[in-house]
């Protein structure tokens, strides 16, 4: 017999009792006994058959539930797949036990084997009242799915035709990556980069698979890694151990548990999205599912979500009020102390105006930041944040964004206190370039941790009676603006079809107190470190810009002359005289600030900025805010302490703003709106450039600033037009 020209190798893999042997016999016609207890095929069997002029070599692998290194069957199956590299793997999935069977499927996806799913036992499923939508499963997994009944042979022809197509054209197979949550995804990415760079085990396993196996502490792969490259293996192991220790400390779990949780979450969400429908209800609901029935309910869910958000702000502002006040007094006392200890001069001005009033203003909000992070840690560690993402997906779709856009928004500060830089990086989970761009251009609108002190300052100064409600309001506004912008992008420059979405819902966990405290402290410490380094540096730089060039001797002479006149006109010791002397001092200080580099710039912008209600001092702060948004607070602190000599010692910035005739509620609203939406900070812009292109980075700076200015102007002018003030 002549051998046909084309040979295709296929492997059958799946859970025990999924019907592999039955299908194998049906296809190859081999006479064998079919047993229904697991383990009958510990060694794999081979057979062959012909199809459309091709010879197909088929291998029946041992049945397994997973691809760990814990059992011989699992090792045999996975070694066969990576060593023999069959052209396509037929993954038999028992449709009547979909959830458990897809667990193995997830791992095949990660192993990167070209795959097709044989959705077996649809007859059994039907009898149990379960209907599985193969088309929807195919769309969500990115892998062909063919329904079959192995025992009768129904669907097997179609299965083999599509398996041949996958073997001959790998493009048909476009699987998804599963996300393992914020704690692990970053590490997986770092490990992958290292593994890829060193070509470490890459001829056997895909780098993502190796990275995950190291996190799962897979003995076989780690042993193999040490043989291949001792040095790289040690590095990768050390990094994986680091994460492992961290997780155990913060959440009391091993990475394996988190990985398994996310796989089940991934599967659950797939099944929920119209893949499986029950014609009658047989299964009991698990605790998580029961909670989710209420918490992610279409009507109740969003209401609960808003209540949780409001509760978080209420908690944050009320609990932090006292400690924030203490810190304010502490910094007031400190600057008084320095004022007395140092001689008048440039150095003293730099320490008090640049360092203490600049960085102090930012550090003063540490208690508030800490309470906010604590609240967010509870939401995150319990698993509620994932539900928020799940619910937001429905809303996001309306605005042309993807379900995977939700996490980047939350990371960027959707609830408050994130950062747009990791937010922009997190958009990498989006596959459609247009949805990704729309997301990374709008995440900077969220209220990141750096905007938080600005919000706290202005809300505290002008809306002190109802802080939580205003914080809530500004958060909702930030979401609205981000979503509407996304819609605008998606219906103009970034037009395109939506792509399917799979959301992972890990089971709820009771957060542990040490875990919450560690999460809170890590983020708070980051905030403090940034204030003590970057913000301090920029504060001093801005202080210098607000100090130099100094007034010329001629200009100083004018004020000296005024003082001299005062002396000769009045008796030097009267009350009016000392007050006039102070106002001359103030005028000189203001003239000096105006005359400085920053003052000149701020003044030059005033003709435009005054439409939105910003004076030259605010302009200086806004320019500084481009370097980092916390700088807005520190610069206002510096500008208002340099421009006014008399109040230097005591009053906190909030009080000084309240007393300034230039500021009022409407100016505060306009300023907040502008600050929330104008150009992303420098680091974010660089990040956008790297993730997209410089063209989009520049677009983001210009678009956001113009857009923010229009909004701020509208906010400031509206009450004037409506003659409210
Ligand atoms: P394996 O462990 O994956 O090799 O599974 P088997 O091929 O041994 O099948 C386990 C049991 O399921 C056997 O009793 C088969 O007859 C039965 N079976 C396999 N496929 C089907 C199917 O599509 N429908 C029904 N009703 N039974 C099936
Ligand atoms: Mg079998």
Report on the structure:
With 725 residues, this protein is α/β, with parallel strands linked by helices. It has four domains: 6-169, P-loop containing nucleotide triphosphate hydrolases (Rossmann fold), CATH 3.40.50; 182-278, Orthogonal Bundle (Helix Hairpins), CATH 1.10.287; 300-491, no CATH class; 537-721, no CATH class. Helices cover 65% and strands 6% of the residues. It is built from 31 helices and eight strands. Strands 2-3-1-4-5-7 form a six-stranded mixed sheet, with helices on both faces. Helix 13 packs antiparallel against helix 15 and helix 25 packs across helix 26 (616-625). It is elongated and about 120 Å long. The protein binds guanosine-5'-diphosphate and magnesium ion. Residues 14, 16-22, 34-36, 38, 63, 120-121, 123-124, 149-151 line the site of guanosine-5'-diphosphate. Magnesium ion (MG) binds next to helix 1.
How are the secondary structure elements laid out?
Blueprint: E1 6-14, H1 20-28, E2 45-51, E3 54-60, H2 72-84, E4 88-94, H3 98-111, E5 115-120, H4 122-127, E6 130-132, H5 134-141, E7 145-147, H6 156-168, H7 182-197, H8 207-215, H9 219-228, H10 230-251, H11 255-275, E8 276-278, H12 287-295, H13 300-341, H14 346-363, H15 366-382, H16 384-398, H17 406-414, H18 420-426, H19 433-442, H20 451-462, H21 467-491, H22 513-547, H23 553-569, H24 575-595, H25 597-609, H26 616-625, H27 630-642, H28 653-659, H29 665-677, H30 682-691, H31 694-721
Parallel strand pairs: 1-3, 1-4, 4-5, 5-7
Antiparallel strand pairs: 2-3, 6-8
Helix pairs in contact: 3-11, 5-11, 7-8, 7-10, 9-10, 13-14, 13-15, 13-21, 14-22, 14-27, 15-22, 17-18, 18-30, 19-21, 20-28, 20-29, 22-27, 23-24, 24-25, 25-26, 26-27, 29-31, 30-31
